[in-house]
Design brief:
This protein has 76 residues and is an alpha+beta fold. It has one domain: Rhinovirus 14, subunit 4. It has two helices and three strands. The chain is elongated.
């Protein structure tokens, strides 16, 4: 490694808006984030599927019709 070209590397704390603190190492001394793995809906299991235009229902109806046609075409 060449001297004088690399940034300083610090012990860092990542602080979430929910209060969670994650220790790590970075070139920044402190990092603040709005969402972490403890409060994000995907990781907490509270994620909701937003379907404002009924696309999921339309897909389910279409897929159900396709499954019925496949079952009726199958040899007995």
């Amino acid at each position: 490694m060449r001297n004088g070209i690399h940034p300083e590397y610090y012990e860092t704390k990542i602080v979430c808006a929910c209060g969670n603190v994650i220790p790590t190492r970075s070139t920044k001394k402190e990092i603040r984030v709005e969402i972490c793995s403890h409060c994000h809906p995907f990781y907490t299991g509270k994620q909701k599927l937003v379907d404002s235009e009924g696309r999921v229902e339309r897909f389910k109806r279409r897929y159900a019709k396709h499954e019925q046609n496949a079952e009726s075409d199958a040899p007995s």
